[in-house]
């Protein structure tokens, strides 16, 4: 068992046939794909393995990290990434707007002054175009803001308040949003695949 829950609930990066990241799934669902033959395990050196090959390879990859899947007949390391052997599409995945996702997108930073607002008491949500002016609660009109900047801006646009946004707000890509909230070990395991796909560089 892994700390924080079952290994079967750990996350696995899913690549399509063109080696593009298309989804993040669980170890349990990844194993289902491996058993059905619709996916192979892929390692950082781009070697792919069927389930049978991975069982054999696990004898060499296993380093005592505790991520071993055991059954009465099989024993193998929980994969970090799988490769879908037939799926070559890149589905459009929209990130649902929520306060939690906004915190991750804006990296717990006030988008006006750059102050860290990890303490809930220090932060608020600002509508770039105020709701009183018809501004909507959407990715491109909402930013994380410290209370001081929110008070300064008031019911005005940034231009009217003489303030400037650090970055233009927009809907985040699911890959970059999720990676911001994953532990360093998982980022390291996935880095090469996401870099290949041309995604933003992962911060440590």
From TrEMBL:
UniProt keyword annotation of Ubl conjugation present: no
Alphabetically ordered keywords of this record: Endonuclease, Hydrolase, Nuclease
Keyword Nuclease: yes
Domain of life: Bacteria
GO molecular function: endonuclease activity
Sequence ranges assigned to domain HNH nuclease in this UniProt record: 97-151
Name by which UniProt lists this protein: HNH endonuclease
Taxonomic lineage: Bacteria, Pseudomonadati, Thermodesulfobacteriota, Thermodesulfobacteria, Thermodesulfobacteriales
């Amino acid at each position: 068992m892994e700390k924080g829950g079952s290994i079967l609930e750990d996350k696995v990066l899913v690549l399509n046939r063109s080696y593009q990241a298309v989804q993040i799934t669980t170890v349990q669902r990844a194993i289902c794909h491996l058993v059905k033959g619709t996916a192979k395990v892929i390692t950082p050196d781009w070697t792919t393995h069927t389930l049978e090959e991975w069982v054999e390879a696990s004898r060499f990859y296993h380093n005592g990290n505790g991520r071993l899947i055991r059954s009465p007949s099989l024993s193998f390391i929980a994969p970090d990434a799988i490769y879908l052997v037939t799926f070559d599409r890149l589905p459009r995945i929209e990130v649902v707007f929520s306060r939690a996702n906004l915190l991750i997108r804006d990296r717990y930073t006030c988008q006006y002054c750059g102050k860290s607002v990890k303490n809930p008491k220090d932060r608020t949500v600002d509508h770039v175009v105020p709701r009183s002016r018809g501004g909507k609660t959407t990715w491109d009109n909402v930013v994380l803001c410290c209370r001081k900047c929110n008070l300064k801006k008031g019911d005005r646009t940034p231009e009217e308040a003489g303030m400037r946004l650090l970055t233009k707000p927009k809907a985040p890509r699911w890959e970059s949003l999720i990676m911001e909230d994953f532990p360093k070990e998982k980022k390291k395991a996935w880095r090469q695949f996401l870099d290949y796909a041309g995604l933003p560089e992962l911060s440590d």
